[in-house]
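Appendix B, Record 12. Input sequence as logged:
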Amino acid sequence: MPSPRPELPKTEELLAELRRSRGELSQLRAQIEARVQGSPLADELADQEQELVAAEQTLLLSLDERLANEALLKARYRAAEAQMEAGA
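Logged structural output:
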């Protein structure tokens, strides 16, 4: 049977890192906005947060697609095994 893909843990690690970075940006933006309303730097950080959200969504979609493909391969493998067993 096909083995799990080794890149999945790396993908999950990257996802965790994106979320951590987004949390840090959010915290810094909140601190800056508390001191200076309408700060251009706070606006830039908000834009960066949105880019990280988009990257997370793309990465999650990619991860879901990989997991779905892996499940499909396993199902096909089991079906082939069953057909061979039935023919034997």
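Residues 25 and 48 are 8 Å apart (CA to CA).
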